[in-house]
Amino acid sequence: MTKQDVVIIGGGPAGLTAGIYTSRAGLKSLLIERGAFGGQMVSTTLIENYPGFPEGISGSELGSLMHQQANRYGLNIVTAEVASITQGQLYNISTTDGDFETASVIIAAGAENRKLEVPDEERLLGHGVSYCATCDGFFFRGQRVAVVGGGDTAITDALELTRHAKKVYVIHRRDQLRAGQILQQRAFAEPKLEFIWNTVINEVIGEKALTGLRLLNVKTHESSVLEIAGVFVAIGVTPNSQLFSNIVRLDDVGSVVTNEMMATSAPGIFAAGDIRKNSVRQIAAAVGDGAVAAMSVSKYLQEKD
């Protein structure tokens, strides 16, 4: 069993940043990633709001650059699935590529957007289907778009999109919103917003890019087609935290609870990025979380020694 100073679980922007910092600090660092390096940003065609790239950069390229930088500073990287984490004198992490002992852990396993689970949703991702209005709203200047959902995130996204789009439809399966009252008041007062109640999406339509949505009214069972250029799905996220539920405190939606230094309820375990409570789910914020978590690990290990 190989002993590490720190094991980082997840190879998105938070995990890779943490690995860069811990490796540069001289810590024996291992990063475990089960899929593509870069996390969810890999599926983003063009990122225009990450500092340092005035012309924008694709998510896959940014993920590759972060991966290369982490490698340059000696971060040990393993592609594997974490099966379990248990606490003894050290933390024992079991994976599909062997077992590891570590004095500290940074959980950066991210979160998954809840999908509509309708035909062609995955195929048109990045071509009209999006899960991030802040990231992609700019691409729909002067066009008609829709937001799916009725909570705070959906209404915040809808209001954000009115800055770019000429018309924003809010599609909600119920007949009233779940968003806070102040957000609701702003939304109902916004002339660019139109609400489509008691409605679900049965299909996203388009060949090379989204051209519309096939809708179903859940009360009347009427089917219709809404012609739009973009749809922003805001029906929640699922943190990839099930593996850690017995070792760190989670909130009621499964996000890892941390303090401002990314420390969890378990000594020596830190969390960063989309998996933690109150994450704003932006690449720049995840990078910041990773840096803070890495510096907290360094301090923790110094004090422990």
What is the CA–CA distance across the termini? 21 Å
Shape call: elongated
Structural class: alpha/beta
Relative helix content: 10-25%
Mind summarizing the main beta sheet?
Answer: 5 strands, parallel
Descriptive overview:
- The protein is α/β, with parallel strands linked by helices and 305 residues long.
- It has helices at residues 13-24, 59-72, 133-136, 152-161, 181-188, 283-304, and strands at 2-4, 6-9, 29-33, 76-79, 82-87, 91-95, 98-102, 105-107, 111-113, 129-130, 144-148, 167-171, 193-196, 199-205, 212-217, 223-227, 230-233, 237-239, 269-271.
- Helix 1 (13-24) packs parallel to helix 2 (59-72), helix 1 runs parallel beside helix 6 (283-304) and helix 4 runs parallel beside helix 5 (181-188).
- It is elongated and about 65 Å long.
